[in-house]
Amino acid sequence: MDGSKKVQLKDVSFYYGDFKALEDVTLNFEANRVTALIGPSGCGKSTILRLINRMHEEMGRTRVEGEIIMDGMDIYSRSVDVVELRSRVGEIFQKPNPFPKSIFDNVAYGPRLKGIKKKEALEGIVERSLRQAALWKEVKDKLDKSAMDLSGGQQQRLCIARTLAVEPEVILMDEPCSALDPVATQQIEDTIDALKNDYTIIIVTHNMQQAARISDYTGFMLVQETGEPGRLMEYGPAGKIFTMPDKKETENYITGRFG
Amino acid sequence: MASSNPYRSQRLAHAILALFTLTAVSPVIAIIAYLIYKGGGALSWEFLTAMPRNGMKEGGIYPAIVGTIYLVIGTIVFSVPIGTLAAVYLTEYAKQGRLTRAIRLAIANMAGVPSIVYGLFGLGLFVLLMQMGTSLLAGSLTLGLLVLPVVITAAEEALLAVPQSFRQASLALGATRWQTIRKVVLPNATAGIITGTVLAVGRAAGETAAIMFTVAAFFLPSLPDSPFSQAMALPYHLYTISTQVPGMPEEMKWGTALVLLLLVLCFSLTAALIRLRFRRKRKW
To answer: Which residues, in sequence order, are CB contacts of A242 under 8 Å at separation 6+?
Structure first.
């Protein structure tokens, strides 16, 4: 699947109630690449993530126009089961949100939903997922301890492991490091780098250096006038966006002139 | 001018607030102290475990204690599952709008209906129409209805207190709404639901008007042996020995009241301990 289009947005607009939050976004997310969405607060970056796993449907009156296609299939067509979609599209949230359960039970949560009950099978999944999330060494002797006792960075890697245990194809990350210190951020970034061989990763970040460090492609989003919807201003390989963007607005943003 | 000195007005405010708190708490302490003073002497092993004798004037109140415990269990059985599931529907499933507002208003109103009305309703519906007769079953159902609003409201609050981020995490992992509720929301709301249950139990245990037509007997020679038996109950027993038994020893009346109070305190204490255990485990 290398370099192919995993998720495609075609003329996507989005409304919260009557408010148009997003307008005519067309964008392809490449398979096995890290794509970063950057832009000032409220420009619709996180909204795009929610549209891909349809989590916006949990938050009241919303409306989507346009098409979002994953592996050739419109994820909003009637035949798509949203529960199944979400096990193919994992999400890491801004604030680490482990369940108040043991480390083991957190990672085993998803597999158990799918009916995997055998202890050995679960143990295998838990170990593999924790290794992938680079957390195994730190927690292997305390899997039965509460996840709430871990540090913030460890909790976030646990959440990554919990998502990996479901074996998603796409992983959405909504500012996953914004609540973490620089060392923990570094660890998460290393984890993301290791994961992109197997997963398509879409990350929203406010941290421009982070986007430049970890992303292969970068999209810059902007609300041009207050009250207007967010639009995708520019999209391309990260190297190009951060060195010679086409648009003035992009340049202003990445050089820190606003936002 | 007093108000020109912020420290002085602050001290004054503190003093007044403390005084009112004391005023609110002191009647409770006074009641307990008075009950112990008047009825403490009646408490004995025999008082708690013997049948009444000599037209209630001697012996114990064992059947009334047993009856009240049965009623409390029956009330829990009928109110907690229904109340919890209704709360789950209202908070997790129902679209928030005019209908849910109307339902919540109805529930709030139910909580304000006088208990004698529940008693008459229970008499009409359970005892007569459904032909359950004056029985533990009819009484438990009536009390269950009476406490339902308390249970629903407490359970709703407990469910709403579970952080939204837990629900999101679960849904994003491919859980259905029901799986999310069962595995994440309900386990983390248990402590709050137990609190509601206790409030309900306290009310059910002390309720007189709702049981006088539906279950309570003045005197029974033996303990109830099925859900269709009549039963004695502490509050009704207290009411009858206070109003309808001439020459009733004072100490026994106060002793009965004391036992009722201790029983309710026991329930509350148990629940407080359970809650404490749950709370120690939670860290969000």
So the answer is: A208, A211, A212, A218, A254
